[in-house]
Amino acid sequence: MLKLNGLSKTYKTGDTALSDVSLDVQKGQLIGLIGPSGAGKSTLIRCINRLVEPSSGEVWLGDVDLVKLSRSELRHQRRRIGMIFQEYALVERLTVMENVLSGRLGYVSFWRSWLRRYEPRDIQRAYELLDRVGLLQHADKRADALSGGQRQRVGIARALMQDPDLLLVDEPTASLDPKTSRQIMRLLTEICAERDLPAIVNIHDVPLAQAFMQRIVGLRAGRVVFDGAPDGLSEAV
Ligand code: ADP
Ligand code: ADP
């Protein structure tokens, strides 16, 4: 589903954040990305959807190499990649429902179509997703009225609203307490299994990664130093 070939990134500052990273991600596979601060985890996540431009290498999503696309082609292909962030990136003054709907169209088109009202089938779908993440009764609340865990559930529903082929998840639980973190990880793993959706999760919390991920990729100084099942990790490090 996703194949990285020799992905490297050196920033203009001269910092080499990734060196020759290759990864093969199967459908439905949940990959936990671990490693010390500065290892290149966020750079890797950001190179996949070209929020950061790779210096070299290939990023195959299905049969498309995203690195070779023009900006306008990329915009189209990015719809296939759902992003979930540490700080949720919700629009505070919009309702939960509106935040989820914005995932369908992106923010700018969201306002345009909001003026013409939404397609009933999009609204139907947003309700189904809100139900799935356990937020149906909060659909009309403003995003800024929610707890951290609830906000991350909105983030998940919004990412699913675009019906992605891949999820990129950047430190989803870094702002959450341990109990809420486990609930969010459980929800994420269940949803990926239900939809056969692959996900790459940048997760600084190693025990949490071991508890929920099927495969762990360890980065150190921009290189893959571990790639395997969670139970192999204790022997490797
Ligand atoms: P790119 O090569 O992707 O264009 P740049 O080197 O231009 O990236 O840096 C992008 C931004 O990140 C700049 O504003 C830069 O100041 C900032 N930046 C520089 N060093 C770091 C760092 N170590 N960590 C995070 N951000 C940094
Ligand atoms: P991690 O997510 O594992 O903490 P990062 O991908 O943020 O690692 O950073 C990897 C390396 O790249 C670090 O040395 C960091 O300082 C550097 N880096 C990250 N972003 C930038 C940037 N925008 N400009 C320059 N250097 C950066």
From TrEMBL:
<keyword id="KW-1003">Cell membrane</keyword>
<keyword id="KW-1278">Translocase</keyword>
<protein>
    <submittedName>
        <fullName>Phosphate-import ATP-binding protein PhnC</fullName>
        <ecNumber>3.6.3.27</ecNumber>
    </submittedName>
</protein>
<dbReference type="InterPro" id="IPR003439">
    <property type="entry name" value="ABC_transporter-like_ATP-bd"/>
</dbReference>
<keyword id="KW-0067">ATP-binding</keyword>
<keyword id="KW-0378">Hydrolase</keyword>
<dbReference type="InterPro" id="IPR012693">
    <property type="entry name" value="ABC_transpr_PhnC"/>
</dbReference>
<dbReference type="InterPro" id="IPR003593">
    <property type="entry name" value="AAA+_ATPase"/>
</dbReference>
<dbReference type="InterPro" id="IPR017871">
    <property type="entry name" value="ABC_transporter-like_CS"/>
</dbReference>
<dbReference type="GO" id="GO:0016887">
    <property type="term" value="F:ATP hydrolysis activity"/>
</dbReference>
<dbReference type="GO" id="GO:0015416">
    <property type="term" value="F:ABC-type phosphonate transporter activity"/>
</dbReference>
<dbReference type="Pfam" id="PF00005">
    <property type="entry name" value="ABC_tran"/>
</dbReference>
<keyword id="KW-0547">Nucleotide-binding</keyword>
<keyword id="KW-0472">Membrane</keyword>
<dbReference type="GO" id="GO:0005524">
    <property type="term" value="F:ATP binding"/>
</dbReference>
<dbReference type="InterPro" id="IPR027417">
    <property type="entry name" value="P-loop_NTPase"/>
</dbReference>
<keyword id="KW-0813">Transport</keyword>
<dbReference type="InterPro" id="IPR050086">
    <property type="entry name" value="MetN_ABC_transporter-like"/>
</dbReference>
<keyword id="KW-0997">Cell inner membrane</keyword>
<dbReference type="GO" id="GO:0016020">
    <property type="term" value="C:membrane"/>
</dbReference>
<feature type="domain" description="ABC transporter">
    <location>
        <begin position="2"/>
        <end position="237"/>
    </location>
</feature>
